[in-house]
Design a protein that fits this description.
5 strands, two-stranded antiparallel sheet, three-stranded mixed β-sheet, 348 residues
């Protein structure tokens, strides 16, 4: 005898984490049509389940976050306060420092809050928002490093035309294009992730919401998402890297033609800091990719990604300032002014 109502044959119940921590079963076919922002919660497993390590991780990441923010903020303030540093190279460096602050602020503060409150749950909207912003600033860092390589290429290979080529309008245009491309890349990935339904395990073996892990949790078809990831990663990874390699190939060729050893040293010292930061950025990014494919567990990949998401932005201010006499001079003028200002504020 036929039954009234829709058939439930073939529907596989799956757990969904609710706001209060409870779990109920629901069919795969129904979750896609409902408002997942009200029901779906993800669980960020973090770097370790060991309760004895939680205070250590909290102190470590809080320290690295404060060092990163303060270091990059000092770079921005030093460049803006010293008129001698109002050049294209330092203009791009200040934008890179700002992008690094936003980059690390996307992931680490959420992790610090989770470690201090022992809460690992993140909402559906919060997870996708974190993923979108993270992708934006990763891409922004990538493109700014490419723009800085082009700036060094023009400065060394065309020194007489440098001020004409790298005019303020072009500098602002390059930064604006980098920002727009980064946002567009992130929005494309996020809009494609919005069409996915999540009905398997909602545990993310990472300390932030990463696109790759979200795709692994999806129970709907992710073929289009995978194609988009490979396509955009290839374009926005290979093209900037090719531009950087081309720029430094031309730079090395021009520097080798300089007759004096002092001239060669000066030319290479101008590019040294940028080359180190670029190598660190791409090297750690490649290391995370290799570890994610070779690691036996996703937790090992999460630990490796700390180098990419935390250590690189933290090291950047030190690399750019410690061997740069102009930057050290600007910081030497800035720090006493900040100290005296804080002393003045402390009097009240």
């Amino acid at each position: 005898m036929p039954q009234n109502g829709p058939s439930t044959e073939g529907l596989v119940p799956s757990p969904v984490l609710l706001e209060g921590g409870g779990i109920f079963e629901r069919p795969i076919n129904n979750i896609k049509s409902e408002n997942m922002s009200d029901t779906v919660k993800f669980v960020l497993l973090g770097l370790s389940d060991d309760p004895d390590l939680q205070p250590i991780l909290l102190g470590l990441f809080l320290s690295m976050y404060l060092v990163t923010v303060l270091g990059n903020l000092l770079i921005i303030l030093a460049i803006s306060s010293d008129s001698h540093l109002h050049t294209p190279m330092y203009f791009f460096l200040s934008n890179l420092s700002l992008a690094d602050i936003c980059f690390i602020s996307t992931t680490v503060p959420r992790m610090i809050v989770g470690l201090s409150t022992h809460s690992r749950v993140i909402s559906y909207v919060g997870c996708l928002t974190q993923m979108c912003v993270f992708i934006s600033f990763v891409c922004m860092d990538d493109l700014l490093l490419t723009v800085m390589a082009y700036d060094r290429y023009v400065a060394i290979c065309y020194p007489l035309r440098y001020s004409v080529i790298m005019n303020p309008n072009l500098c602002w245009l390059l930064v604006l294009l980098s920002f727009l491309i980064s946002v567009l890349d992130a929005l494309l990935h996020t809009s494609m992730a919005l069409r996915l339904s999540f009905c398997a395990s909602l545990e993310i073996p990472h300390f932030f919401c990463e696109l790759d892990h979200l795709l692994k949790l999806a129970c709907s078809d992710v073929l289009i998402n995978d194609i988009l990831v490979y396509l955009l990663t290839g374009v926005l990874g290979a093209v900037p890297l090719s531009g950087i390699i081309f720029s430094y190939t031309q730079i090395v060729s021009s520097v080798l033609k300089i007759p004096s050893a002092g001239g060669k040293y000066k030319a290479f010292s101008v590019c040294g800091s940028h080359l180190v930061v670029t190598s660190l950025f791409y090297g750690t990014g490649l290391g995370v990719y290799v570890s994610s494919t070779a690691a036996q567990s996703s937790r090992e990949s999460a630990v490796a990604s700390v180098l990419y998401t935390v250590v690189t932005p933290m090291m950047s201010p030190f690399i750019y300032s410690l061997r740069n006499k102009d930057m050290l001079r600007a910081l030497g003028k800035l720090i006493p002014r900040i100290t005296s200002f804080l002393s003045y504020v402390g009097c009240f």
